[in-house]
Design goal:
This protein has 108 residues and is mainly α. The chain contains seven helices and no strands.
């Protein structure tokens, strides 16, 4: 049997593997609880199982997936799309607001 994360739980893992809507809602619930997107993604992947999640994601190796989840990793948008695909979500990025830009300019 594969080595499992402490977060892994067989019943929940099976439910999340089989139900795309459950994966999506679980991930969004973690975000609402205050998890950073990368922390939430890491948690759901560990609950499902790394090998099982890469099977859902398709063209990504387990070792590459784990490397991309590290806080210091510079994940590309195309890789992020692959990784978030099984969640049925689309990650978007927004520019900084004018208030933030003004504060940054004053600090310079």
């Amino acid at each position: 049997m594969a080595r499992r994360s402490i977060d892994w739980e067989e019943g929940l893992s099976k439910d999340l593997q089989e139900d795309g809507e459950a994966r999506k809602h679980f991930f969004l619930g973690l975000i609402e609880e205050g998890y950073h997107w990368r922390e939430a993604l890491t948690k759901i992947i560990k609950i499902i199982g790394v090998n099982e999640y890469t099977a859902l994601a398709g063209d990504i190796k387990p070792s590459n997936l784990l490397n991309q989840l590290k806080p210091e990793a510079n994940i590309t948008i195309s890789t992020l799309r692959k990784i978030t695909g099984p969640l049925g979500i689309e990650m978007t990025f927004r520019g900084r607001s004018d208030n933030v830009r003004q504060k940054l300019n004053k600090a310079s």
